[in-house]
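Repro:
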Amino acid sequence: MIERALVIGSMNCMPTEYALLLKDHCREVVHYYDAANSDSLSNPRIRWGADSRKRTEGIVIRKMYVRHYLSFLLPRLLHQNLLNEMENADLILLSGPAISLASHIPLGKKTIIGLSYGGDVSIFCDREWPHKALPKARNIRGLIASQLNALKAKFVELQIAGLRSCTHYSYFIPGFDTKTDALLDEVLAGSSTKVRLPRYSIGLDLLEYEVGTKLSSHAAKYKILFPVRFCEDELFGDKGWRLLFDGLKRFKQKTKTEFICICFEKGNYHAARNYAAELGLGDLIEWHRVVPFDTLVQYYHAADVVVEQLGSHWIAQGLFAMALGKPVIGRLSTPAQRVFFTGSGLLSIENVDSLVECLAQCESESFRAEIGREARAFVPANAAIGPEFLGWGVV
C-alpha cells in the first residue's frame, strides 16, 4: 500500500475523482483544490450538494489560493506549501498550472503524474499560445501587452519543464485529439516522460441519486438539455453552441412540437443568450444557474434528450447522461472518437440538417428507449473510471 498520495487541482473536478479512487490504495490521501467557494462544479466541498461530506470522507481536503496561473512563475515564494507537500508524498497527481511544480521536486522513487484535461496541454504547453493571445490582451495592473506576453511565454516553458519532469502523463486516447497529440510528441521529445496513461472515463458511483422533482417549468414540452459551457474562440475551442441554436431554429420551423432547451449560465453565456434572441428563440431557451452535481443528475433524468458539444471537443458530460440511459446527441470529430463510440447509441451529427434529424428522431419515446439501452450498457463496459485507473498500474 502507498503511504501518502497527493492530488493537486480542480478543473472539471477530475482530480477529486482520482483522490476518491486512491482511498483504497493509500494510507493517506491529501487533495488540494482551487475553486471559488461558490463554484459548485469544481469545489469538492459542495460538488455533490448535501452528499459532499459523505463522498469525500477519508481524504484530506485543503483549499489552494491561486489568484492567477502566472503565480506559478514564483513557486518558491507563492507555492512553497505545495512543494513541501510534494516532497513528503510518494504518489503525486498534478493538473492544470500545478504541473509546472514537478520540475522543482527531485524524483527519487516518486511517481508523478501530469493529469492533463486538455487546456493545460493544448494551451499551457503551446509555445504559440502567448502570440495567439497577444492581440486580445489588455493592460493588467500597468503591464503592457508585450510584457504580459513575455510572462506567458516564460510560464509555458515552466509548464513544459514540469510535464517533462513527470514520470507519467495522462491524456485522452491517442487519436481523440490529433492536434494536441502532435504537441505532446513535440514537447516531450527526448524527455524521460514516456508513459502515457489514457483517460476518458467517468465515475459511475456519482450517479447513485434518486430521481427528484422535474426541474423545468415547461413540464409538458419536449425537453432538450444542453449542459455544456459556452465558449467559442481560437484558444479554448468551439463547443458548437451556435450550431445548436441554428438547429433549434430549423427544428422550430419544420415541426409543430412544443419544446424547451435548458442551458446553464456557464462561460460566455451572454453571447449565447443574445444569439438565441436574434434567432427568435428567446422564449424557447431556459437559462438556469450552475448547480451541484447531485442536482445536475436530476436534470439528466428530467431531459428527453441531452445535446453534448457539437464542436471539436471530447464528449465528457454526455457519458453521464448515457450511463443513465438518456439519448445523447454530439459530434465525433476524429476517426478514433468514432471507433470508441461504436455501438454506444450516441447520435453523432455533422451539421444543422443532421442535428434536426436527430432531434426529430428523439421525439419518439420508443426510439429514445432503444438507444438509451445501448448507451446504458456501453458506459460501464467502456468508460468507467475505476477500471481505467487500475489499468494505469500506478497503485
